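dude i think i finally got it to work??
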Amino acid sequence: MSGYKYIETAIARFIAGRYRSVIEAGAGTNLHTANLLFRSGILIRCVDIIDPPVNSWIPYVKDDVSNPEPGLYQGCDCIYAIRPVEEMIPPLIRLAHYVHADLVVYHLGFEGADRPAPLPGCEVPLHIYVKN
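look at this
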């Protein structure tokens, strides 16, 4: 397995082995990781500033992490983001602290020089910004 879906599948495997209730922030329209987590029995919700995809069965809420509705995130073990824009990181850190959730991020690879080291145990370089 290589390329795009390989990355998302590796992230799903890592998250499914560690968390029971997660939120994908900035999910957009590519819900491959969320679908894998959903099929694994993980409680999953996606959030983004865009409207949810029409044919998705994954719970999906329109929300802006820069000005979030904290109740949407309460009770989750982990907030994760795949390829978020750099401006999302500070509000996600604040949000994860506020709701006592881990924050795990997969970066494109070239943004943010001051990020944490990659997490051990994942096939792709995931970074944990908040650990609760």
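Residues 50 and 62 are 6 Å apart (CA to CA).
im so relieved honestly
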